[in-house]
Amino acid sequence: MEADFWHTRWENAQIGFHEGEVNRMLAAHLEALPIAPGARIFLPLCGKTRDIAWLLSKGYRVAGAELSEIAVQQLFDELPLVPEVTQEGPLKRYAATEIDILVGDIFDLTPEILGPVDAVFDRAALVALPDDMRRRYTDHIATITQRALQLLVTFEYDQSVMNGPPFSLTEVEVRGHYSARYDITLLEDAEVKGGLKGVCPASEKAFLLLPV
Ligand SMILES: C[S@@+](CC[C@H](N)C(=O)[O-])C[C@H]1O[C@@H](n2cnc3c(N)ncnc32)[C@H](O)[C@@H]1O
Prior knowledge:
Layout: H1 3-11, H2 24-29, E1 40-44, H3 51-57, E2 61-66, H4 69-78, E3 84-88, E4 91-96, E5 99-103, H5 111-114, E6 119-123, H6 131-144, E7 149-157, H7 171-178, E8 182-191, E9 202-211
Parallel strand pairs: 1-2, 1-6, 2-5, 6-7
Antiparallel strand pairs: 3-4, 4-5, 7-9, 8-9
The protein binds S-adenosylmethionine.
S-adenosylmethionine binds next to strand 2.
């Protein structure tokens, strides 16, 4: 997806992907992550997800990356927190106590700008990207996080019935992207109640990726 696609979605408040409450897979499986209290968790393509508020309330530190400044302004308004905003090369950093969100193209994010992270929570990030961007994205995530462990949430459905995003990913494709770098465990495979976008039978999967 091109940047304009996402900017337009945020400008027009077409954000059906936004859950408005903590993601069920995150709440169910956070305890499966071998991380210490206060760990720093990175949410790529974070939008204004309420997962951030939930993780902060559990005592974790949060980092995020998001293209849309509208999304990030709404995120801080809704937390509510007043950010300090600084420019870091092509990115902006919105920072407050225990939270840093880098605003701009995630492919401009470097390990130095991101800083060390202990885990990645990928919900609606890998599946938001078309096939030709996914290989670049998975390589980049592994690089900028120095192969931090991941909790990854994906959807699988008949792609001929509906167009993405979110795009359908099979377990084989997830393994194709990540098995050279991580041991992969399928934690849960659950039917999406009512179907994806209320129309398409789908399953939602949670994977734990531990660096090898
Ligand atoms: C499907 S939404 C998911 C948002 C969030 N993870 C959630 O669960 O609500 C994908 C988000 O990725 C952002 N995005 C898309 N391409 C991006 C890029 N290259 N760099 C940073 N963010 C990007 C979009 O603006 C959008 O907010």
